[in-house]
Design brief:
Number of helices: 5
Helix content: 40-55%
CATH architecture of one domain: Orthogonal Bundle
Order of helices and strands: HHHHH
Shape: elongated
Radius of gyration: 21 Å
Mean pLDDT: 80
Largest sheet: none
Distance between the termini: 39 Å
Strand content: under 5%
Number of strands: 0
CATH class of one domain: Mainly Alpha
Structural class: mainly alpha
CATH superfamily of one domain: Winged helix-like DNA-binding domain superfamily/Winged helix DNA-binding domain
CATH topology of one domain: Arc Repressor Mutant, subunit A
Length: 98
């Protein structure tokens, strides 16, 4: 192994590394960020990359503009985003997120 350029790590070091860093890894049952969103929040999120205004999104989804504003705020909060620009990145469809 070492001759081919790989590093050799003693088993004791490996165990210490795993025991040190394993508690900081996300749990396997941690939901994906999109799973935290309601269906309607996902609907609004999917409209953001299309650069539609709140009024346009509201008309398209048959909800009020104020409701769109609330959903956009919740999406940003749940996904830890700063603004609509960050939220406008392409997201997988709801069927692809889980």
């Amino acid at each position: 192994m070492v001759a081919s350029g790989d590093a050799a790590v003693a088993p004791g070091v490996t165990r210490r590394l795993i025991s040190e860093f394993a508690p900081h890894l996300p749990a396997s049952d941690t939901p994906a960020p999109l799973d935290e969103l309601t269906t309607r929040e996902r609907d609004v999120l999917m409209e953001l990359p299309r650069a539609r205004s709140n009024a346009e999104i509201a008309a398209r989804l048959h909800i009020s503009e104020a409701t769109v504003t609330v959903h956009v705020g919740r999406v940003l909060g749940k996904l830890g985003l700063r603004d609509r620009g960050e939220a406008a990145q392409p997201w997988p469809s709801a069927s692809q997120s889980g």
